[in-house]
Amino acid sequence: MVKLIGALCILIASGFIGMEISRSLAERTKQLRQFISALESLEAEIMYGHAHLPEASMRISRQFDHPIGRIFQSFSENLESEETTAKEAWKKSLMEHWKSTALKTNELDILLQFGETLGRHDRYQQQKHIRLAVTHLERLEKESYQRQTTYGKIANNMGFLSGILLILLLL
Questions:
Q1: pTM beyond 0.70
Q2: Can you give the residue ranges of every domain in the chain?
Q3: Could you tell me which residues come within 8 angstroms of residue 137 by beta carbon, excluding any fewer than 6 positions away?
Q4: How many helices (H) does the chain have, and how many strands (E)?
Q5: C-beta pairs of 95-98 under 8 Å, 24+ apart in sequence
């Protein structure tokens, strides 16, 4: 009876590990999609709403869940509360909340590069820089989705199968 309970615990634990790996792959793809949507919303706010960056960022922060919404909220607050440039405020808000994202350094590099141009150009130049960042993020999102569909199922199955293997080795 004790062996059966131990085997069941091993199987459940290894299954959860596999599901957690699969979930993290899916979370990265989801957050990339959210960032793309957020940047497209920023573009619309700047181009058609003629909104200033703090105001546009605060509106965007209300549209998205944590951590993407928090990044934009922090960006807006940094712009309003401190004597800082948009570049510094963007970098600070990214660094504050980056660890809570499932994104990788490739995405951080793209977003930091995008931050270099924030608030420095007219609306049309800013639109070009937003579109460039969106294009790069879309490419990474496609790669992430392919990785998720390929390795997500493998991770799920490997979790359970490694648990079964461990049980068989221990018996």
A1: yes
A2: 2-170
A3: 32, 35, 36, 39, 107, 110
A4: 6, 0
A5: 96/71, 97/67, 97/70, 97/71
3-state secondary structure 118-170: CCCCCHHHHHHHHHHHHHHHHHHHHHHHHHHHHHHHHHHHHHHHHHHHHHHHH
- Digits of tens for pLDDT over the chain (171 positions)? 888 888 889 889 999 999 999 998 899 999 999 999 999 999 998 888 887 888 888 999 999 988 999 999 999 998 888 778 888 989 999 999 999 998 889 999 999 999 888 877 788 888 899 999 999 999 999 999 999 988 988 988 899 899 899 888 887
